[in-house]
User: What shape does this take?
Amino acid sequence: MTTQTSEPPPLIDGEIEDEQPMLPAPEEVVFRMRQAILDGEHWFEALLDGVARWRAPEEEIGSRHYRYLIHGEAFDWLLLAERLLDEVPDLVPVAEREALLWENRWPLDIEDHEFAARLGKAKHSAHLNFQYGVLVEQALQLSIEEEIHKEGRSRAWGVDLRADETMFERVYGHPREELFALHYQNTGVMLGVRVSYADWKAFTYWLFKFRLKWQDKARVASDTRKGLAQLTRMELQVSERRHGARLNEDDFAERYASQQGLGVRERASAVGVA
Assistant: This one.
């Protein structure tokens, strides 16, 4: 009988010193974070150091699957923060933990540039991909859903060919079922009636990349503006919410300029995201 071996998953960038070489990387990160807090370091600073050292892009704990790095590009740092904080419940005030994980409110006033430096260049770049590709994309989707709902309420009589148009068709040019099929062709991941939250975030990021390629640059800018505006309205309720970066149109345009827009012929035949 032969034994098949598989390649280990790619690691998230982050240097780990060899002070505890016998410990697997996740346990080592947790050990160092706990020790730092016990030695007097604020738990949030110890957490950021732990996030910087972390290398596994995903892991399985019990029945839960943690996917920290989506499509090798988008880093969900709050999911990793949740996983690490679960290891030190006795050392972190419950109210502060919940404020971070549920409202993204930080217990310390750390400037965005310091946050970026503590995460490291690669992780912070991937963090921005998650902010624009998942968070802002979800806000855009909600904004379009609200537009369609308002149009429906204002249409008491008469015929409107867009009456049955969905958010997916308006933003991405295809109904959801077709997008599921294109996603499967491109990623090999089949999405059914019930989709886990982790898979939905991955699908949302895939939609973001699809939108960058399918839409022309003017439409990308317009829709991104809608998403940013919607996100701003949603966050007026939580004035202290932090993202570790200032999300805005200029930064978006500079960051994704090379990925935007196809020619008319290419756009007509686009079937996925590279």
Remarks:
- Residues 25-109 form one domain.
